[in-house]
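Bench notes, afternoon.
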Amino acid sequence: MMNKAELREALDQARGYLNRVLDQVGDRWEMPVYSDGLQWTARQIAAHLADADRGHNAQVMNIAEGRDIIPPDFDVQRYNARTTEKSVEKTADQSRAELEASRAALITWLDALDDDKLTREGRHASLQIMPVWKILRIMALHERGHAQDIARVLEIKA
């Protein structure tokens, strides 16, 4: 299990890396990063990360309080496709502002969280049952993974 300090460090490192990558996208926001599946551009990935951050925040905050908000039949692929359609006009700057606000809210919550609530379990969007601390770790990995994909395709050194 990771403690709050370790989780905060993982979240901070992932967000720092993401920000360094996004700072270097320049005028390439509409460049495709993925050629299969949803075929997201860098701008769409930023919008996806902003939406995922809000969703993950809701998951961990509710699970910590004993509420499971992800239904057993949740389809993450369908959800991602739907949110991509809804955010078609969202700018990269809007997504980045949302990312900043949602992370600030998460850190405030995490800092005040009782340590024992990190082990409470609930359903993640992957449909796996896992403790709060693991979802927080996945949040950092998810963010870093998408940032690495953007960096690789756009040849960004971060």
